[in-house]
Amino acid sequence: MTNDKMPPASAGGIPVGEDLIPDDERMSAAEFRTITEFLGLSQVDTPAILGVNERTMRHWLSGRNLIPDRMRIRIEEIEAFTARAVGDVVDACMDAPDPTVIVYRTDEEMWQARPAFRPYPARWWRHVVARAAIEVPALMIDYPS
After folding, report:
1. Alpha helices in the chain (DSSP H)
2. Cβ-proximal residues to 38 (8 Å cutoff; 6+ apart), any chain
3. What would the pLDDT profile of 48-104 be if each residue is shown by its tens digit?
4. Using CA atoms, how far apart are residues 108 and 15, in angstroms rounded to an integer?
5. Which of 10, 63, 114, 127 could form a disulfide with 51 if both were Cys (CB 3.0 to 4.6 A apart)?
6. Overall pTM > 0.85
7. Which CATH number fits domain 23-142: 1.20.1270.10, 1.10.3100.10, 1.10.10.1590, 3.40.50.150?
8. Distance between CA atoms of 121 and 114, rounded to whole angstroms?
9. Contact, 136 vs 87, CB < 8 A?
10. For residues 114 and 14, what is the distance between their CA atoms, to the nearest angstrom?
């Protein structure tokens, strides 16, 4: 539904190994988990989208390793993209007589219908639509026929 380009799946262009964020603004493990879950990203989806392996993410979540500044920036990009997607769904549905949005059972089903959303999971899209439904009370949500 969005015309904006998907944020890249890697942290390309963000300096690696540099302190970009003050220590008191570093992302905590609790914040990381809370935000990624709110975005509809699982512990399997998140490392793939961030371009890291699952073990690295487990180390961040356990507190064994600090979450790099570039990942905070990347998560903020994903949050902004998600908010735009929610806004696009709301805008598209506000004036529709019977607003309906299609969600998908599987990632593959969504990627086939919406290739621009790859590598984001169908679960992410369902979270986007659920957030939009709060603002569009008459919104119907359905699977593809």
Report:
1. 29-38, 45-50, 54-62, 69-94, 107-113, 122-135
2. 127
3. 999 999 999 999 999 999 999 999 999 999 999 999 999 999 999 998 999 999 999
4. 33
5. 10
6. no
7. 1.10.3100.10
8. 11
9. no
10. 27
